[in-house]
Design a protein that fits this description.
Protocatechuate 4,5-dioxygenase, Chain A; mainly alpha; about 65% helix; 2 domains
């Protein structure tokens, strides 16, 4: 049921993924959200839903539920820096082992 609306072709899915992993893009989004949205081939409905913080509409348009929650965290600042929560850190440390510190340094974290 959670994926009944999911549309992998919805460009907002790409936007949120890129916001999660691109520190510069996140900074631009925070300072000039409309300019970042202009750089993506979003539909008018997607753009309006993002600007209006209409998460239900984004879900119905096809934004993946996981990415929906990530967008809310990015917008409202409750998710820490992407990938740095306690749970994410534990997972990354486990997966990357000795490469964790260099990986985080490459990301600028």
């Amino acid at each position: 049921m959670a994926l009944e609306y999911f549309d992998p072709l919805l460009r907002t899915n790409d936007l949120v993924q890129e916001l999660k992993w691109d520190r510069e893009l996140r900074a631009r989004f925070e300072s000039s959200e409309k300019e970042v949205l202009d750089a993506y081939p979003l539909t008018a409905e997607e753009r309006t839903a993002i600007l209006d913080r209409d998460f239900r509409k984004l879900f119905e348009l096809g934004l993946h539920p996981y990415l929906l929650s990530q967008l809310a965290r990015l917008i409202y600042g409750t998710g820490e820096t992407a990938g740095t929560s306690g749970a994410a850190t534990a997972l990354l440390r486990s997966l990357l082992g000795d490469r964790y510190d260099s990986y985080m340094a490459e990301r600028g974290e």
